[in-house]
Structures are given as C-alpha cells and as structure tokens.
Amino acid sequence: xxxxxxxxxxxxxxxxxxxxxxxxxxxxxxxxxxxxxxxxxxxxxxxxxxxxxxxxxxxxx
Length: 61
What we know:
Number of helices: 1
Strand content: 15-25%
Largest sheet: 2 strands, parallel
Radius of gyration: 11 Å
C-alpha cells in the first residue's frame, strides 16, 4: 500500500490506533492526537516520517 497522506489529526473519540494503521504511508509527516489516546499498535507508523518520533514517545498510562 502506498499513500500520499501527509497529515493525520486523530479526533477526541479515538482511544486506540490499531496495528499497522498508517504503515507505509511514507509521506505522513504530521500526527496530532488528543489526550484520550491510550494505545498505539505495533508498527502503526512503520515506514512513515513520524515513525521514530511515535516509537520514542510515551503515552499516558
């Protein structure tokens, strides 16, 4: 899969992002989320421009 998606703005109703959700969206460079996000699945941002930032961030427990 390939995508020209460059930005993702996750609404307040979302508490989890599933495994591989944005994987291979190679142009994704901006990801905004709300305080309710509790879980990001494995490789959800794999092979994106934000992948390393997401991997190293901490979500509230």
